[in-house]
Structures are given as C-alpha cells and as structure tokens.
Design brief:
The protein is α/β, with parallel strands linked by helices. It has helices spanning 13-24, 82-108, 131-151, 171-174, 177-185, 195-206; strands spanning 4-8, 28-33, 43-46, 64-67, 113-118, 155-162, 217-220.
Amino acid sequence: MANTYLFAGASSKMAESAASLLKQQGHSVIGLSTKETHSDYDAFYTLSAYESANFPKIEKPINGLVYFPGTILLKPFQRFTEEDFMTDFKINTLGAAAFIQTYLTNLKGSDNASIVLISSVAARAGMPFHSSIAMAKGALEALGRSLAAELAPGIRVNCIAPSLTNTKLAEKFLNSPEKLDASQKRNPLKKVGEASDLANAIEFLLSEKAAWITGQCMAVDGGMSTLKLM
C-alpha cells in the first residue's frame, strides 16, 4: 500500500536519502524546508521558519511525520548566551511540537500512523561543549515519550539518536583527513555514519515492520552511546 509521508527539514542529506528510499517503495513524500534546494519530492514547500503560522495546510491523510531540523553549536558552557540556548531549543524542540500539532489531524485520518523525531547521541552520552544541543535534544526525546503515551494506540512516536553523520550540518567536523580520522576513532565501529544509515532506520520506524514499537529512542551511532572499548 502506498503511503504519504511529510518531512520537515527536507533539504537535509538525511531527509533526501530517506525520501529516496521511500519513493523507491512507491510511497509519496512531501517536503518542507527553510532552504529552497531539494531533491525530487512529490510536493515541496519553502518556509521562513518551523513555526505553526508557516506550515502549509494539507487536506489528505498523512501516514507519517519526520522532523529533521537540527543544530550543532559547540563551545564551552560559559560562552553560551541565552540567545544560543533559545535558538537551539526553538529549532530542535519547539519546531517539532508545532509541526506535530499542525498535522495531528492528518495523522489521525490514517492507519498505522507514525512520528519519527531526530535526536542526538549527545542527549544521552555526556560530551564536552554539547550542553545546549544536549538540552534541546533531551527535551525532544521527552516530548517523544510523552506523545507516544498520549497518542497510543493510533499513532506511534519514536526517536532516532545518531552520532556524527556525514551530512552538510557536520561538514566542518569532517572537512579534512585529520578530522575524519579523529571522528572515526571516537566511534566503536570506527566509522562515521552515512545518511543511508539513518534513512534505513527511519524507513523501518515508519513502516508496519515497527508496528509494535513506540516510545523508544533508537541509537544509530556505531555504539558510541553504550560501548566503551578498553
């Protein structure tokens, strides 16, 4: 059966990879983004921000939502400003809440509805200089668990928590052989994640293969959040 999925942050490499995978299976994917560049979505809307007033009205049922927008602002804790914290929280967490609120009625009109939120390894593994993004993504995971309880049994809600992945957002951490090598060595599987790794997990959580999974946060991080190699 062909489903319809709606992606926020659809211009990201991760979103484009997931959309390509779903479209290969015959599904329809609608994209929303604050950037105009995008792949071949079935429909695409450019927004000024991820806020309720900017989301387009969609009449038909939607089988799944995926919220991709994220930030990587890393610096010592004492150098973060209130504006830094608020920016991270607005993009990563408040935007997700507004996105879900806007399209909740569309989800309730479909069978096997699913929501997938993109968190970060930083929300569960203490990492220096990650205080702002860890706070924002930790709140996002809490939102996901709360909604999983509130929206059951009709709508499943899960998170994916990646470690550093080869996308444009992480480019400045991987743009030299030395940086790439250092990032690979920090990971138990000795590799940096690819967009396709996340796309496969997203496709699984959206599908009926995950019909008995809700309220979870799947670590797609090469073992970084749970393993320490001696």
